[in-house]
């Protein structure tokens, strides 16, 4: 019969059409597979039951979050090998071989039904996706985990988006400060201007812009916990006269015009059906000649143009209703709304580096992170961030900063002839 590990590896190999490219350990202590820096650990039969009951990412996610499935050693190397096995293969197993493997897996799993989904999984949602109510619930699920938990993961900057590495930026804090300053320079912020930060998080962008560039800023978020933390930080910085933090949907923001708008890691929540509305709303809030900086994760375009399917793990545990679009579609929709897109910069490798720093923070503070939320929630974040780092490294997803302007009536953009002047030191344009 063989050990449990050998039976699992053999049956999964038949199901997938090739041998497992990583080492596997089963609940009886047996191991099999090629040696490597990472080991996939099947702690009990519930892991098999969950995966058989819900084949695909959701079953794997439930087993991981519950602790039935785990990893020892180099998690990134294991995820790289899993990615190549599960999502990047061109050859597919025969249906006959796959069907022959299922009875063996069922026998090995035992007759019991799987346990209920972990409590960290979002419960059944109702109503149309991306309504005001449903978006509030989705944002609350993701962000209202506790500000202290996020501080452990993100570090003192409290910036939850891709950092900007290189040059003098050697630490996470330096790289996040460099990212915020890069955005300010792309927006050409000046003393006394009005800035709207859509999805302001814990207030880091508006704080940097008000402190370093003298703007008057409005930050909007749907998270009550984020807003409370941001207001506290603003008060402590002595900038309450220059910064206003609101719990407000962008669709309910109407006090333009603003000289500049930043949207950093927020547009992924908008949804494809609502993106035209999002772009049109931001255009209406911007003065003629004003600039928009849209910082957004992108997926690879589907060559068959099939409908986009939400990632089951991320939708159930991380970003409910989140949607990624190819960068070409984002640019097209911004221009259809009336924006002129003037610059696009990919920061894909930068996000992989950022995510690895967040994972390190979480792992180094693991006991405290678990005490602040639940072990299941901490496991969600470790897997989500590590898997995302691997996805960026393998170019499965990307991240782009799109700079767009609302041109004036006579076509003026307000940009210098050398459009990447922001790569120079901050300061006035020498051509002026």
Describe, in plain words, how this protein is organized in 3D.
44% of the residues lie in helices and 16% in strands. It has helices at 4-16, 45-53, 57-66, 75-86, 95-109, 132-143, 147-154, 172-186, 204-213, 224-236, 275-285, 312-317, 327-337, 348-364, 366-372, 375-393; strands spanning 23-25, 31-32, 38-42, 69-73, 194-198, 216-221, 243-247, 258-264, 286-299, 340-346, 397-405. The strands form two sheets. The protein has a seven-stranded mixed sheet with strand order 7-6-5-8-9-11-10. A four-stranded mixed sheet has the order 2-1-3-4. Helix 2 packs antiparallel against helix 3. The longest helix is centred in the C-terminal third of the chain and has 19 residues, at 375-393.
Entry summary:
This protein has 432 residues and is α/β, with parallel strands linked by helices. Helix content is 44%, strand content 16%.
């Amino acid at each position: 019969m063989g050990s449990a590990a050998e039976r699992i590896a053999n049956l999964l190999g038949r199901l997938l059409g090739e041998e497992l490219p990583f080492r596997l350990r089963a609940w009886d202590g047996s191991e099999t597979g090629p040696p490597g820096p990472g080991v996939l650990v099947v702690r009990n039969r519930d892991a098999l039951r969950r995966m058989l009951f819900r084949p695909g990412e959701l079953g794997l996610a439930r087993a991981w979050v519950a602790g039935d499935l785990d990893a020892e050693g180099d998690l990134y190397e294991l995820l790289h090998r899993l990615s190549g096995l599960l999502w990047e293969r061109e050859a597919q197993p025969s249906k006959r071989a796959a069907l022959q493997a299922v009875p063996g897996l069922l026998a090995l799993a035992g007759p019991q039904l799987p346990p209920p989904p972990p409590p960290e999984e979002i419960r059944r949602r109702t109503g149309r996706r991306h309504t005001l109510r449903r978006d509030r619930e989705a944002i609350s699920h993701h962000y209202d985990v506790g500000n202290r938990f996020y501080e452990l993961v993100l570090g003192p900057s409290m910036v939850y988006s891709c950092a900007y590495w290189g040059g003098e930026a050697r630490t996470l804090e330096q790289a996040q400060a460099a990212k915020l300053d890069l955005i300010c320079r792309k927006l050409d912020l000046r003393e006394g201007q009005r800035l709207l930060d859509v999805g302001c998080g814990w207030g880091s962008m508006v704080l940097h812009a008000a402190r370093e560039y003298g703007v008057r800023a409005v930050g909007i978020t749907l998270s009550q916990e984020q807003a409370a933390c941001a207001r506290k930080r603003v008060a402590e910085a002595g900038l309450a006269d220059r910064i206003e933090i609101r719990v407000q949907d962008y669709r309910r923001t109407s006090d333009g015009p603003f000289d500049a708008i930043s949207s950093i890691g927020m547009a992924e929540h908008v949804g494809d059906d609502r993106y035209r509305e999002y772009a049109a709303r931001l255009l209406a809030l911007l003065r003629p000649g004003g600039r928009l900086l849209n910082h957004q994760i992108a997926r690879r375009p589907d060559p068959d143009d099939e409908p986009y399917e939400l990632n089951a793990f991320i939708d159930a545990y991380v970003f409910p209703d989140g949607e990624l679009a190819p960068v070409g579609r984002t640019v097209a929709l911004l221009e259809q709304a009336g924006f002129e897109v003037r610059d696009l910069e990919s920061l894909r490798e930068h996000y992989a580096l950022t995510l690895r720093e967040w994972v390190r923070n979480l792992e180094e503070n693991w006991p405290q992170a678990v005490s602040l939320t639940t072990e299941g929630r901490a496991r969600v974040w470790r897997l989500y961030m590590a898997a995302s780092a691997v996805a960026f490294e393998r170019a499965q997803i990307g991240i782009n900063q799109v700079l767009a302007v609302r041109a004036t009536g006579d076509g003026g953009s307000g940009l210098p002839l050398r459009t990447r002047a922001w790569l120079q030191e901050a300061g006035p344009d020498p051509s002026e």
